[in-house]
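quick one, 170 residues, struct below
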Amino acid sequence: MERTAHTANGDTAARKASSALPSGSLAHDLALVLPALHRALDRRVDADFPHPKPAEGQIALMRLIRDREGVTVREAAEVLLVKPNNLSATVTQMVAAGLVERRRDPDDKRVTHLHLTPTAAERTHAVDALIGGYVEQALAGLSDGERGALGAAVGTLHLLERGLHPSSAS
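---
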């Protein structure tokens, strides 16, 4: 069963958001379903996470720091597709909240490297565990063929993401 939000005039939000793409096209369907999956997971985490859930941008940054311990703000901004000054402001908030530590580079005092605090590492793991559980639960309701099709598509979705990345634009 598909859920859609209706606007005051009866149109669905999904129809309005995708009106520029031909209905039924792969591009149209992906442009609708991928953000909807993200929102569904985000709402489930909001409901079940026992702490105030960090903003999605903060979670993305915490995952990046976890995966690339010691990343700089500039490097993180490039990966996350945000402006360095905006990310720096987010880092300042996260430092104040006890989620991130800034450590000076021993060779270049102008550069700081980002590290997660134990609290942030624990909460990032908890959010990822919740999301993994939700997806596992949803996958269990699919047939073997449907799960196989999704598994086969994951690599292609990564290629699609790289193709849509601004650095790939000519």
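Residues 31 and 112 are 37 Å apart (CA to CA).
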